[in-house]
Amino acid sequence: MKIFANNIADQIKSSILKNKLISLNEVLFCLVLAGLILSACSKKNGGSNSSQSSGEYYFRAKLNGTPKDFQTVKFQGGGNDNHWEHVVVGGYEASVTANSGALSPSLDFEIWRVGGNIGTGTYVTTTEPQMISRYAVQTGNGTMLYNTINAKDVFTVKIDAISKDGIKGAFSGTLTNSTGVSISVKDGVFNLPYDKLVNR
Description:
The protein is α+β, with helices and mostly antiparallel strands. The protein has one domain (2-199). It has two helices and twelve strands; from the N terminus they run ααββββββββββββ. A six-stranded antiparallel sheet has the order 2-1-11-10-9-6, with no helix packed on it. The chain has a six-stranded antiparallel sheet with strand order 8-7-5-4-3-12, with helices on one face. The two termini are 24 Å apart.
């Protein structure tokens, strides 16, 4: 099962490195699916449940002034030589299970520094060429995707702590959809364990 999860991560990395933008749903679906599969494997092997709920973890923000407390969240990433070359943090507004139907709105951000290191500090889309944030809303006509593709949209992530124990920090910015409608993201904060799916 770990091979399956690694293959998902390789596909995501390959798409980004080829400058192809993948949708938020693809990223989060892969992360959630991999988390659920690994959780099921660890239960079968007598291990602990990696998707165990915990009140100490959170991923929340105000979207156009409305507070959003995301319920199914995850921090994932990796790199070579004990460096963080890739970090993705995201979640769904409602809890997601293996039997969930339609997905609720989701928000994530992703930072890549291939060959470099992502540590504590501030990261901004205007200076990080492989950084993106996305907000996806499911509609009857498909997914309405807001992101930072437009140069005018600035998204900032401040990482206060990052390790194999987890990640903590803050974020804010603006996301725009294909019709030019923008969403303001403010007061974003996160505190998540590493590579564990949290269902709150």
